[in-house]
Amino acid sequence: MSLEDVDTPALLLDLDAFEFNIQLMASFAEKFKINHRPHAKTHKSPVVAQKQIVAGAVGQCCQKVAEAEILVAGGISDVLVSNQIVGRRKLDRLAGLARNANISVCVDDQDNINEINAAAQRFNANIEVLVEIDIGAGRCGVAPGKAAVELAKSIRKNSNLTFGGLQAYQGKAQHIRGFGERKIAIKKAGKLVKETVHLLSEADFECRLVTGAGTGTFQFEADSGIWNELQAGSYCFMDADYGLNLNESGEFIDTFKNSLFIWSTVMSHPTKDRAVIDAGHKAASIDSGLPHVADVKDVTYVSASDEHGSLVLGPDAVDIKIGQKLRLIPGHCDPTVNLHDWYIGIRDGIVESIWSVEARGAAF
Amino acid sequence: MSLEDVDTPALLLDLDAFEFNIQLMASFAEKFKINHRPHAKTHKSPVVAQKQIVAGAVGQCCQKVAEAEILVAGGISDVLVSNQIVGRRKLDRLAGLARNANISVCVDDQDNINEINAAAQRFNANIEVLVEIDIGAGRCGVAPGKAAVELAKSIRKNSNLTFGGLQAYQGKAQHIRGFGERKIAIKKAGKLVKETVHLLSEADFECRLVTGAGTGTFQFEADSGIWNELQAGSYCFMDADYGLNLNESGEFIDTFKNSLFIWSTVMSHPTKDRAVIDAGHKAASIDSGLPHVADVKDVTYVSASDEHGSLVLGPDAVDIKIGQKLRLIPGHCDPTVNLHDWYIGIRDGIVESIWSVEARGAAF
Question: What is the arithmetic mean of pLDDT over B94-115?
Fold first, then answer.
């Protein structure tokens, strides 16, 4: 089937660009002698995970037990749930999974540690536990330093838990546009991580993992000598939002290629300078900005409604026709992928593969 | 199962509030002697559709052929696709469906009319076609007046099509906050509709349907005597965005009750004034604003990331605990429903029903 025959809206994966991105990140990690554990919250697909692992990744991160279940069922043997998991029902599922794969999870609370251990005991499982520290993101995590050491001590006291190290992700730094400002944010974060690793070491805790970093900052974490694992996930797809980050020369970063697109059809063209496509909120998440129209010049996606995207044609636009199909670059890849059931893999204009977004909606 | 035992994130439906809303709108439509054809893009569920029809609704609207297919398969016999459908593959599906139910569709383009007729011919089907006019929303639709009459003439010339009337929805007016301003927007829109109906009548076209209106404005369309069908859909669930519309006295409208909630768990509580819940972009669409925290006072949902919602506890907040579950009112009901697979129906704190969001993701 040719791309033109793919009905819309659909989620397209440019396989050449996708493979380029995976190889590039694998080469980077090899060069810096640092582990790469890509985040599956981006792709929600064991197929994508397998391709990353074949290229050299050590395992996968995810945010939800349901994602971990789907990854393990899909053949991934090493999964870090880079998140807090709360409540007996979810923790029993996590402990069950730990009987079948290497499972790590993050904590930032004393009671939660005990709750995880109780689940691990019920399943006669061992779960590796990382202490999450807040290094500037202002979301989950205890303060760096002593609070982290206290949690590590508590983990050590629990029969079925192993202290695994630190979860140290500076989420807010990923989309700081300026290169220098991003670098400084990670430098500051690194100082906090280093101090915490040092305090842990004094208390006789070795960090098997010091893990974090995203697509916006991974080179800084890799270069710091402090982190030993990168979690960057969006790099394999990219999106319009990451496309706004700047490199050292103040230009838009183009290290990785856009491989993910929303395929849409022009369904209405009411005036010369306006057209409407069939991809709105239910095909593209706009939380980090609207999609960009690819391939054609001076056509701008100006607003979204539930099932419509409104386009404005500028003076340099070649006229577009009802029925014409257009590729969009999503504003934010992760929640956009979560709206779709399938990746339609395209190479040279032909459908080469159809992969399930297996963990779509697996939020619990 | 009690509500407390429902794992998170989940989409809750307060059945008492939901039934109240459906009855209230049915009473309104009866009082105004106007048809109600609720929009299924909101609920994507044949079960909800059936409940609306039992209460008096004449059928359903939807935006996509796939939604129409699911509604018809779920026993709905009268479906208006209130949207342009483009391309042979989709139109063949629509024509096939028209062999099994009363199907209407909207047009705003000459070539599209011919394309619909060709599909109807292939299936020996008859499809009712409404002309969509742009009465201020600035999205799809031809200009009111002569352009609409030209399209009606074209529909009449086609062997397998029936002219059905006008699609006249003022989407932009739905969320104008002030009562007076909303009323004026619909008054202006009504003038355009009336003129078009008159021109059509002079050209010997009777409008079986003059259909439109949403939850923000339906009382004005009903009161105008111009429209004969209301498409309001969000009324059965409501959301935080509709909650900001004002009534005649300048107070927030509370005609309909919030029946739709996102059920979430506190997963981290790093500081006294901050907590994090397990519902972010993948559980709640933020295109029309962030969710609101229900039931507890002075706790505000201040930012969303993919799987996290960050809460700020104000001075009047009672402390919340990790593991505690909270209900959120979604910012925008339609795209939020589309993120979930199930409605968990709750009455008196007990799970009474589980309904599939059958048309979730059915975007093509």
Answer: 98
Pick the residue from chain A with its C-alpha nearest to B305: A287
User: Which chain A residues have a beta carbon less than 8 Å from that of B332?
Assistant: 281
Residues 6+ positions from B38 with CB-CB distance below 8 Å: B25, B49, B52, B57, B60, B61, B231, B232, B233, B235, B236
B-chain CB neighbours of A108 within 8 Å are: 268, 270
* Inter-chain residue contact B323 with A86, CB threshold 8 Å: yes
Contacts of B8 in chain A (CB under 8 A): 364
| A57, A238, B306, B345 alpha-carbon torsion, rounded to 10° | -100
CA dihedral angle for residue B77, residue B80, residue B84, residue B88, rounded to 10 degrees: 10
Find which of B133, B278, B356 to mutate to test the A interface (most A CBs within 10 Å of its CB).
B278
**Residue owning tokens 């086609």:** B158
Report all structural domains of chain A as residue ranges with CATH numbers, in order of start. 3-9+254-356 (2.40.37.20), 32-236 (3.20.20.10)
Helix locations, chain A, DSSP H: 15-31, 40-43, 46-54, 65-73, 88-98, 110-122, 146-157, 179-202, 218-224, 333-337
Write down the pLDDT at residue B356. 98
| Per-residue pLDDT tens over the stretch A241-253 | 999 999 999 999 9
pLDDT number for residue B319: 84
Interval A94-111 mean pLDDT: 98
Cβ of B9 within 8 Å of Cβ of A109? The answer is: no
What tokens were used for A353? 């593969």
Disruptive mutation site among B84, B242, B282 for chain A (greatest number of A CBs within 10 Å): B282
**Residue type for position B257:** K
> Which residues from chain B sit within 8 angstroms of residue A7, using beta carbons?
87, 89-90, 364
Confidence bin at A319 (pLDDT 50/70/90): confident
Contact A211, A167 (CB under 8 A): yes
ipTM here: 0.96
Taking contacts as CB-CB distances below 8 angstroms, the residues of chain A near B307 are 41, 63-64, 83, 363
Give the per-residue pLDDT at A340: 98
Give the residue-averaged pLDDT of B226-250: 96
Whole-number Å distance between alpha carbons of A139 and B274: 8
Residue A31 has pLDDT above 90, yes or no: yes
